[in-house]
Amino acid sequence: QVQLVESGGGLVQAGGSLRLSCANSGRTFGSVVMVGWFRQAPGKEREFVAYISSSGGTTYYGDSVKGRFTISRDSAKNTVYLQMNDLHSEDTAVYYCAAGVRRLRTGLYSYDYEYWGQGTQVTVSS
User: Fold this and answer.
1) Given a cut of 70, is residue 122 above it in pLDDT?
2) Could you tell me whether strands 47-53 and 120-125 are parallel, antiparallel, or unpaired per DSSP bridges?
3) Which of 65-76 are b and which e, b meaning 16 or more Cβ less than 10 Å from the residue's Cβ?
4) Residue 5 to residue 46: CA distance in whole angstroms
5) Residues 47-59: what's their mean pLDDT?
6) If pLDDT is split at 50, 70 and 90, which confidence band does 116 have?
7) What is the spatial distance between Cα 101 and Cα 37, in angstroms, rounded to a whole number?
8) Could you give the CA distance from residue 72 to residue 59 in angstroms, rounded to a whole number?
């Protein structure tokens, strides 16, 4: 079973940085082919933020975060990170990490993923 736990959220001023962590407390990421980050602001649909392949060699980003956010993974720690720099008030949302075990998926959509964490709140004050 894959069990994801996010951490690292909080309150930060605009222009600041946060690093989110997504730890797999279940079986190793060996069975997982991709990990993604999504976010959902109040009254809005869940939005794709970033994706990383199982090897870490392929990453994708949503247009709104390109150049500011970086996704990475530490296989030894079974953890995926989302480094968020130059945060804007529009980045305020609950951030979720998700893991997918099926191949031949783009990783850009919620339905590509089978396992989800509980979410961590990120609030950016202007």
Assistant:
1) yes
2) unpaired
3) beeebbbebeee
4) 18
5) 93
6) very high
7) 15
8) 8
pLDDT at 29: 61
- Would the pLDDT of 39 be above 80? yes
Q: Which residue has the tokens 């946060």?
A: 18
Euclidean distance between CA atoms 29 and 99, whole angstroms: 9
Q: Which two tokens stand for residue 72?
A: 């990475």
pLDDT at 73: 94
- In percent, how much of the chain has pLDDT > 90? 79
d(CA 26, CA 1): 5
**Separation CA 83–CA 122 (nearest Å):** 12
**Residue reference for tokens 């933020």:** 49
d(CA 117, CA 73): 16
Both tokens of residue 120?
Answer: 């961590």
Residue listed under structure tokens 């099926």: 102
